[in-house]
Amino acid sequence: MTTSSIPRHEGKTSVEPHRVLVLNSGSSSVKYQLLDMRDRSRLASGLVERIGEETSRLAHTPLTGGAGPRERTGRIADHDEALKAAAEELAADGLGLDSPELAAIGHRVVHGGLRFSAPTVITDEVLKEIERLVPVAPLHNPANITGIRTAQALRPDLPQVAVFDTAFHTTMPEAAARYAIDVETADAHRIRRYGFHGTSHAYVSRKTAELLGKAPEEVNVIVLHLGNGASASAVAGGRCVETSMGLTPLEGLVMGTRSGDIDPAVTFHLKRVAGMSADEIDVLLNKRSGLVGLCGDNDMRVIRRRIDEGDERAALAFDIYIHRLKKYIGAYTAVLGRVDAVAFTAGVGENAAPVREAAIAGLEELGMAVDASLNSVRSPQPRLISPEYARVAVAVVPTDEELEIAEQTFALVSPGDADSPVHSDN
């Protein structure tokens, strides 16, 4: 299929459709942004949270026209009601989903497996494949599917595009993607490293190259996406060659509530000795581990305050977090051979100067250093925090996953790209 076969809204005006609605449907929330792709400006954004609860909340922020943010509370039963409520808020700002200016809806889909290595127009067959991947993304893909179906019902004539968290990582060589287990078993059950946060890693690696005044093809970057979920990637010439998350988002760095790397035999030990079920171990490693498991808090600001107050448990949690980061920086330096930049991004990476300082400290022999004064500056702009003499640039590059999804969606459905393939069937 090519974009020439994509259904288009029969516009009521001669205006070429230029808006993209980005939807990120979680298990109990829907985040949305509406963007004008002529200048990449945001027209509105919002969040519906605690779907299905009596305390549901919709927070909507129009970003044009001077109107202020508004909020509604009260039970929102399901994703269908949530998306309809969001559509009502957009319509109140003159940005309704029935507008002929709306070109497409772009959906964040967490797991695309090996088949989808590019943004993909959603057809019945594509949706079936996303459903087939539910066993390897049971917490994410079902919610993504719900959001897609709801949006399709609201605008069945409009192109719906899936942008996959895993897509950027499909360029990993087999030596990096394969686990050392029986091949037949692995293939039968789709067990391999897929990686996540791909839209962020793609965006940040490209923006880091721009910051250095070079093309992405000329730059090797280690990207550290540090939020409540955290992942690292090694990007060589614009292509991912290694990433820390694996079959699921549990592997890799220490995260807010996830353990990251752990001896797999720990799970057997907990089953045999503690009598824990598979579900209980799943909850332990995904929701009661990481920083919250180590010290009871997963907010880095709180942890740093506790450290300043002399809290040893918080200090140990921070040291474990940094130790894992250093291991990955060192490992990915070896994988890449030549590193041009290390880029910090996401909530912790962009805002926690002590994390950046501690992660790079002691890596001078690898050509990395942080300038304390530059590191202390807070700014929404991409910036270097390394001294001029450093061989490897250290950067803070704010991520923008919604813009990346909108860019990929619009490039796929806009007439100028009508001959581009919409998906890969690798």
Structure notes:
This protein has 426 residues and is an alpha/beta fold. It has helices spanning 79-92, 124-132, 141-154, 174-177, 183-188, 198-211, 265-273, 278-287, 290-295, 300-308, 312-336, 346-351, 353-360, 372-375, 401-413; strands at 19-25, 30-36, 41-49, 57-62, 70-73, 102-109, 120-121, 160-164, 220-226, 230-236, 239-243, 341-345, 383-384, 393-396. An eight-stranded mixed beta sheet has the order 5-4-3-2-1-6-8-7, sandwiched between helices. A six-stranded mixed beta sheet has the order 11-10-9-12-14-13, sandwiched between helices. The longest helix is centred in the C-terminal third of the chain and has 25 residues, at 312-336.
Task: Provide tags for this entry.
426 residues; alpha/beta; eight-stranded mixed beta sheet; six-stranded mixed beta sheet; 35% helix; disordered C terminus
Helices and strands, with pairings:
Blueprint: E1 19-25, E2 30-36, E3 41-49, E4 57-62, E5 70-73, H1 79-92, E6 102-109, E7 120-121, H2 124-132, H3 141-154, E8 160-164, H4 174-177, H5 183-188, H6 198-211, E9 220-226, E10 230-236, E11 239-243, H7 265-273, H8 278-287, H9 290-295, H10 300-308, H11 312-336, E12 341-345, H12 346-351, H13 353-360, H14 372-375, E13 383-384, E14 393-396, H15 401-413
Parallel strand pairs: 1-6, 6-8, 9-12, 12-14
Antiparallel strand pairs: 1-2, 2-3, 3-4, 4-5, 7-8, 9-10, 10-11, 13-14
Helix pairs in contact: 1-3, 10-11, 11-13
